[in-house]
Amino acid sequence: MNLDSPTPMSRQIAEHSTLIERFLGLPKIALLIFVLLIAALGLGNGIIGYLVVAGELDGTWYDIRDLGNVNAALRDAILSSQLNTYIAGALAYLIPAILGATGIVSVVGGWLLIGPWAERRLIAKFQIRQGPNRTGPFGLFQSLADALKLMQKEIVIPTGADRFLYFAPPVAVFIPAILGWAAIPWAPKMSFADMDVGVLFVIAISSLGVLAVFVAGWSSNNHYSLLGAMRTIAMMVSYEIPISLSLLAVVLMTGSTQLSEIVTWQSTHNVWLIVLIPFAALAFLFASTAEINRTPNDIGEAESEIVAGFYTEYSGMKAGLFMAVELGNAILVGALMATFFLGGYTMFGLETWIPGYIILATKIGLVYFLFVWIRGTLPRFRLDQLMGFAWKFLIPVSIILMFIVAIESAIFIRWDVPAAVSLGLFGLINVTGAVIISVVWIRILFKDLDLAAPERPRLVTAVGGLKAAKEIRG
Amino acid sequence: MTTSTEPYVLNIGPQHPSTHGVFRLRVVMDGEKIKDLDMIVGYLHRSMEKLAEERTFTQNIPFTDRADYLAAMTGNLGLAIAVERLAEVEVPERAEFLRVIFSELQRIASHAMANGTLISDAGAWQTPLLYMFREREKILDLFEMTCGARLTTNYMRIGGVAFDPPTEFWPALRELVDELPSRIDEYHELLVENEVFMARTRNVGVISPEDAINGSLTGPALRGSGIPWDLRKAEPYSVYDQMNFEVPIGANGDVYDRFMVRMSELYQSAKIIKQAMDLIPEGPHKTDIPLALRPPVGEIYSRIESPRGEIGFYLVSDGGPAPYRFHIRAPSLINLSLLNELGRDSALSDAVVTLGSLDIVVGEIDR
Fold it and tell me: Is pLDDT of A2 > 60?
């Protein structure tokens, strides 16, 4: 960008330095502290990693690679204390529960402060803009300022709205968004509720949100809200099936419905499921964007069509809560995607040296970045196109591929060859199978789909009316 | 058991993200399908045509800025040419070339805005719009450099243009025109081959050539339907007869074709500006006319090609300094009149995209 630009605005943009330049421009002492902190963190991790590798430290409470150890140590201390058995039992149950719940809420809450800022900055970069950069350092406090503003705003209740039903959804929609985190394993023992039926729990929880959307759309007494709720419900119901099918493929492959088991399976076989069953992973990703209302499937709140969808009539913090849940769901999907298909908290042995929750958080961030990238790039599908895609393509192809995976998993248990050989073969079969079946299916079902490139405009020099048009077309 | 649905009325606008201003649609819907659609205009009515009867012809030029506020230059030019033809005012050669340069710049700016908002209507989260604004911003900088205003330029005068561009204008224009084709290639890569965008726009809002003629469509909406009609070629005004350019026409008349016609016109406009820059002679930039120009008694209808189509001015002079009747034929209003038939029995999403592809400016519709 040249500084001789004629307008003040373009000069301002040209003078604005990048994030890294501004970071390096901080006071020397701040930079020194930052470097020392990083060094201390690295050193501490290195020492602990070395101790673990040497076999000195495993499962003790100061093993920072797994915060679950602290909880376990606390529970053991309580149980072995001089307290009454009943009180000790209750406390041993309550304290870890409260600690875990606090952890989950802080993670989601922290994300709600960082997430919008990150998303807006990233999209601004995609759109050659600056993004929020006025509130606090690098605009980091923007979400805080937004939340403060939203809380001060008046809550307008539309005429004819059902008051109780109108007030319930913003709160109710938060419950599944938080509950879904319970099953996510952040490190070997660090999971709020490591259920045997974790996958079923995840599927069940993710379909709860639709209720709040339904109630919000109905009680607002507004046609936009109703249309938005109708679209969102239709989408959620349709895309619940591909999600379940792709998770079923995961369960068949790993032989467990426990989330930590799924992660362990990927870790022991040194392979991510996205490599083994790529179609399931992509189906999960696409269907999740439909579930959480993000581009290119954000028809439930398509701004250019139905304003804000089911929360058109909500104002102030109530609208803010809906937006917050949307973000919270985006990282929940990121966590599920990372756990099921990207190896969860493991990273080919790196988890010995770095705490597992940092690895998982990085993966969540990457998936979230993918969502932001898609949002900054793609237009939106139409409702019937999305429905057609789910019912005519995603579901049947997922079912066929699920059967292939089922056969493979049966072979995998009985076949007496190294896992690397069989899994490599299965991965190859699954990739080629997905491509072949997709192409064949499209050829059969979408025969009249125009796949050819559209005609470019013709350039003419002579003008005329209808007659000339017919002559040109021939 | 049979299920039945009840149609309901949805009110879109006057305040709505995709109505391009204060324009209102009253839609009768059955589920997601539009059963009937009424266009309600008049929320931006400023009584321009009546007010113009109280002002001199030169004083009326600012009204044309505010009618089609995204293409002020062509609005100015339309009125200037109409008055010149009525009063038989000669225009210097240099002024004619400046007029061509500025109206083509305006066409690029306007088409960039039209295509950007169309893709935003299709659901892209404003990214293409802001890329398109990159070019528009530079063009508006050039306008600012020349006449001090960016949007309501008020630049064309009866018998010429208001100012000769400053010396730093020409290198900046040369730079812009030279890099413009490569920039438009970038948009082609980003948008034209985008599958989602194609799925949303192809075979949507199809206007047949016959319907286009019967609905008196003009501009890219008409050319998208395959009718090779452009007033710059058909009735060359100013110095368009000396320019070498081509008219792009679409094949199917759908939203995608209208979008592509605008995209191709960006290249053609850059080509015209380049030629005009090479051909522009030295000399005065306007002729002196009396402060209160009194055209002879008579009437005239004069039309030029604005970015949105044929903008026509019907002027009646009673020999006085102000027009007896001042009427603007607004292309947006007439192009919009087909929306009823295009939108009926289509999905709401399609109607929104179709409205975006017709590229209306409400200031011009309501006047």
Answer: no
* CATH class, B8-366 region: mainly alpha
- Say whether pTM exceeds 0.90: no
Main-chain phi, psi angles of B44, to 5 degrees = -120, 25
Residue B325 · residue B301 · CB < 8 Å: no
Under a CB-based contact definition with an 8 Å cutoff, are residues B38 and B26 in contact? yes
Nearest CA to A379 out of B247, B127, B339 is that of B127
State which amino acid sits at residue A262.
Answer: I
Q: Which residues fall within 8 angstroms of residue A122, CB to CB, at 6 or more apart? A: A131, A369, A372, A373, A376
- Blockwise average pLDDT, block size 10, chain B, 367 residues: 77 77 85 85 87 88 88 90 88 90 91 87 81 85 87 87 87 87 80 79 86 88 87 87 88 87 89 89 85 87 90 89 89 87 84 87 85
Cis geometry, peptide bond prior to residue A296 (ω within 30 degrees of 0): yes
Number of neighbours of residue B175 by Cβ within 10 angstroms: 12
Q: Nearest 5 degrees, angle CA A103-CA A108-CA A113?
A: 120
- CB of B196 less than 8 A from some CB of A: yes
B85 touches chain A (CB under 8 A): no
How do residues A349-392 score in pLDDT, each as one tens digit? Answer: 777 777 788 888 889 989 999 988 888 888 888 888 888 888 88
Question: Which chain B positions have a beta carbon within 8 Å of A459's beta carbon?
Answer: 246-248, 264
Give per-residue pLDDT as tens, A183-209.
Answer: 888 887 777 778 888 889 988 888 888
Of A231, A385, A457, the CB nearest to B199: A385
Q: How far apart are CA B17 and CA B215, in angstroms?
A: 27
From chain A, pick out residues whose CB is under 8 angstroms from the CB of B271.
Answer: none
Model ipTM value: 0.82
A-chain residue closest to B228, CA distance: A463
**CA end-to-end distance (rounded Å), chain A:** 48
Residue B138: φ, ψ to 5°: -65, -40
Residue A157 CA neighbour count, 13 Å, CB half: 10
Beta-carbon contacts below 8 Å between A and B: 166
Distances (CA, A) of B301 to A207, B159, B218, B326, B336: 64, 18, 16, 10, 22
CA distance A234 to chain B (A): 12
Give residue A58's pLDDT.
62
* Residue A13 one-letter amino acid: I
Cα B111-B114-B120 angle, rounded to 5 deg:
140
Q: How far is it, in rounded angstroms, from Cα A104 to Cα A101?
A: 5
Q: How far apart are CA A385 and CA A394, in angstroms?
A: 12
Amino acid at B362: V
- Residue A3: pLDDT band by 50, 70, 90 thresholds? very low
Contacts of A295 in chain B (CB under 8 A): 123-125
Angle of helix A395-414 relative to helix A419-445, nearest 10 degrees, comes to 160
CA distance A123 to A29: 32
Of the candidates A202, A207, A204, A156, the residue with the CA atom closest to the CA atom of residue A182:
A202
> Is pLDDT of A211 > 80?
yes
- Please judge whether B196 and A296 are an interchain contact, meaning their C-beta atoms are less than 8 angstroms apart: yes
Q: What is the mean pLDDT of residues A391-410?
A: 86
Contact A62, A45 (CB under 8 A): no
- Nearest by Cα to A215 from A175, A168, A177, A155: A168
Looking at residue B316, its pLDDT comes to 92
Q: For residues A99-110, give the mean pLDDT.
A: 83
DSSP β-bridge partners for residue B38: B26
Is the CA virtual torsion A47, A50, A54, A59 positive or negative?
positive
Question: In what side-by-side order are the strands of the sheet with B33-40?
Answer: B8-12, B24-30, B33-40
Domain boundary assignment for chain B: 8-366
What pLDDT is recorded for position A16?
Answer: 58
